[in-house]
Every structure is written in C-alpha cells, then in structure tokens.
Amino acid sequence: MSEFWLISAPGDKENLQALERLNTVTSKSNLSYNTKFAIPDFKVGTLDSLVGLSDELGKLDTFAESLIKRMAQSVVEVMEDAKGKVQENLLANGGLKEKMKCLKIDLTSFVTHFEWDMAKYPAKQLAQIETDLKGRTAAYSTLKATLDSLNQKAKANLFTRTLSDIVNKDDFVLDSEYLVTLLVIVPTQNYIQWQKTYESLSDMVVPRSTKLIFEDKEGGLFTVTLFRKVIDDFKARAKENKFMVREFYYDEKEITREREEMTRLLSAKKQQYGPLLRWLKVNFSEAFIAWVHIKALRVFVESVLRYGLPVNFQAVLLQPQKKSSIKRLREVLNSVFKHLDEVAAASMLDAAMDIPGLQLNNQDYFPYVYFRIDLSLLD
C-alpha cells in the first residue's frame, strides 16, 4: 500500500514497552511494517504559540498536499504520450543526506528514511511554487488545447473536418472563368454508382474529371469539375442520389496559413515540453519534501500539546500491508495505547470535540497522535 500512518506515544518506559508490543503483534500478523521516525528536539515556546502553530500547520499541510497532487496531475498531462513513465518522474531527489543525494529517491524510500533538514522546510517556497505552477501550466494548457482542437477537426467526419491537410492545388481547376472543381462526399457503398452517374447528374460536367482524394470508414471525398453555371443544378441532383457537395473554396494562402499554424504550434509545444517537465520534476521534489517535513513538525507539536513537557515522545511510521487489514491494525493500536486516553479508546469520541490546536474530532482523534501520509497522488 502507498499509505503510511505517522503516530507518536510518550517516551517513558511503559509506553516504549507498548511500542514493542505493537511491533511484535503487527509483525506476526503481517499488519504493518513499522520503523522509527526521527524528529529532532525543537525549541518549545508557550502553550498559546504551540496551539497557534498547530492550526497554522494544519492549513499548511492541506495546502502542500493539494499542491503536490496538482503537480503530479500536471506531470500526467504533460507526459500524455508516456503515461506509463509518470511515476518514475515523481521523485524526492535531493531529499536525503549526502550519502544518497546523487540517487533517484522514490517517495516511499524518502518517507521511510526521513531525516530532518531545516533547509527543506521553507513554507514560503510552497506559495511561490504554486504561483509558478499556475503560470507555467496555463501557457502549456492553452497551447495543448489549441492543438487538440485542431487535431479534433482533422479527425472529424468528411462533412466537418479540416481539409488543409488533404487537399492539394493540383486537385482543383483554379482561376477559370467558366470551370470550377467541387468536392463531393460519397458513401462507401455508393462508390460504383458515383463513377457510373456523376457525368450525367447535370449538363456540362467534365468527363473523367473525378478523383478520390481522401476517404474514411464512412465514405470518400471526390473531386468533380463542371461549368460554373450548372453548380446549383448539379448540387440538387447529387443530393437526390445521396451525394453531398462539401462547400469548400481552395485558397492557397489560407491553406498555407493553417499548415504553418499547425507546424508552429507543434514546434512550440515541443519547445515547452522539456523545460516544463524538468521544472515540474524539480519542484515536485521540493514540495513533496517540504510536505513530509510539515508532517514531522505536526507530530512534534501535537505530541507536546498531548503529552506535555518536558519533550519526551517516540514517533513511529507504520505502513499498512493490506487494505483489508486496516481495521484490525486500528484495533491493535487502540488496544495497545488505550491507557493514554481511556475515554477516547472506548468510544472513539462519539461526539465531535472542539479544542483549538488539538484538532480533535470523531474522525481522526485517537489515544495516540496520528497523521496519515497518502502517496496515492494520481488517484
């Protein structure tokens, strides 16, 4: 599973023994893989400052998680042609100490080998990353949307699709006072009928002037040349025979402009792709690393608020092994640590509690400090 539970319990002898019992039970039953989670001893201010910091960290935690999920989704959108390789681009590079800085660090490895680094906890940096993300992805998204629209027009049916990529100057009689070339859509099953009848649909149709220039699964696009004065009559007779004249005027300048626009857009997208993906990879790493530091600091603050001074607690990272065992794992945790809060352990707080800073409610309050780290960023 890509889910982790970051918990803490007091660091006295009784509770360290409780943690040992937890490790024994969860290991034997294959409920979770547990490791110690190292958090440094920070300077502790007043209770009021800790309560305020707890509220601030809660908001920052939510913001950071939302940001990295948006960045992960942006990587998916940018790597539209290589979605199978998205996960290998969502890394926490540079997040571990010198011995592993040169390696590609996957998210799970970073969390399970977490080491506090003050340089990696720049809360203000997250706001700047979000601002840059909006600007960079907006420009790319606009470019991609324009290209997608043009590609959709090129994939539409013969009645509506763009023709700039399939017609050529040689397909048409141009600059003639008397003659004009029309484009006619013929259903596939009527090809033979068209070849036999198109010359007789009207007077003044140029013999042997038809040519198939494009076809899709439903039909083909044929040219036919005739005198201008019989256009209306030809259209009417063609419609009676289930042949539809496509309104189209060959304008070489417009055709060239459309082709050049597509080439320009493809080139611009290619030029933006590399720099944007590199930026996303680097800044995703920074944001993710900062997020896990926020989790660590939340554990410290909540542990001090919950267990008091002097600071003495042990943080543990649990990785549930199976989704089906989560309920059992929670029961084991509540049983091992119920002595920390008998009422909470018994009822899991039937009614919501509203104590500033402690974030106690009937959904996430337990006898022990608990925070969830979910690495399912693409779900």
From TrEMBL:
Keyword Protein biosynthesis: no
Signal peptide: none
Stored InterPro entries: ATPase_V1-cplx_csu, Vac_ATP_synth_c_sf
A molecular function GO annotation: proton-transporting ATPase activity, rotational mechanism
Keyword Lipoprotein in record: no
Keywords per UniProt: Hydrogen ion transport, Ion transport, Transport
GO cellular component: lysosomal membrane; vacuolar proton-transporting V-type ATPase, V1 domain
PANTHER family, sorted: V-TYPE PROTON ATPASE SUBUNIT C, V-TYPE PROTON ATPASE SUBUNIT C 2
The family this protein is said to belong to: Belongs to the V-ATPase C subunit family.
Record's subunit section: V-ATPase is a heteromultimeric enzyme made up of two complexes: the ATP-hydrolytic V1 complex and the proton translocation V0 complex. The V1 complex consists of three catalytic AB heterodimers that form a heterohexamer, three peripheral stalks each consisting of EG heterodimers, one central rotor including subunits D and F, and the regulatory subunits C and H. The proton translocation complex V0 consists of the proton transport subunit a, a ring of proteolipid subunits c9c'', rotary subunit d, subunits e and f, and two accessory subunits.
Role of this protein: Subunit of the V1 complex of vacuolar(H+)-ATPase (V-ATPase), a multisubunit enzyme composed of a peripheral complex (V1) that hydrolyzes ATP and a membrane integral complex (V0) that translocates protons. V-ATPase is responsible for acidifying and maintaining the pH of intracellular compartments and in some cell types, is targeted to the plasma membrane, where it is responsible for acidifying the extracellular environment. Subunit C is necessary for the assembly of the catalytic sector of the enzyme and is likely to have a specific function in its catalytic activity.
Name listed for the protein in its UniProt record: V-type proton ATPase subunit C
Lineage, top ranks: Eukaryota, Metazoa, Chordata, Craniata, Vertebrata
